[in-house]
RNA polymerase sigma factor (Virgibacillus profundi), 183 residues
Amino acid sequence: MEEDEIIKLAKAKDEKAFEQLVNQYKPIVEKFAFQFGMEPEIIPDIVQETFIKIYRKIHQYHRGKFSTWIYQITLNVTRDYYRKRKREFNLIDKAKKTQIMEIQGGYYFEKEEHLFLHECIQKLDPKYKTPIILYYFHDKTYEEIAMILKIKLSSVKTRIHRGKMKLKEIYEQAEGKEVYMNG
């Protein structure tokens, strides 16, 4: 069955169709939430909240790529979580969490450098971190990123460029050596 048909059925509250959408997009939501800096133990909550919102608002989806719409919702859920967490935790608790995290729940890195890069990306301002994650780890085009973030195409290009420069600075400071940029 085509995705458009599945979406149409899901809009009609067909539970099997919605379950198909969940099965198809759950790994994408998990990966995006993790790369956005969510702790592995929080990711199931983010996924659940994302799909609850999708279920409640699927009737509002009308055009464009369905995956782009899901990225928008996932991004909003993660931002809401960060706002909530920011209110709940004080600086001391945050300092305790900056220790090297143990990767669990199926999220792992093939090499230690990958974990180090992930930690450097987490230090970026979200306005730079989000486009970099979408472009390099989710293979989204500049146009798709502009739609997901609801910003101009030129802003996407600028944020990715500046984000790479800032990431390079963070990486060099942590490593104590200069990095050659390619891509």
The longest helix spans residues 66-88. The domain at 1-108 is CATH 1.10.1740.10 (Rna Polymerase Sigma Factor; Chain: A). The CA atoms of residues 32 and 114 lie 16 Å apart. Residues 97-106 have pLDDT under 50 and may be disordered.
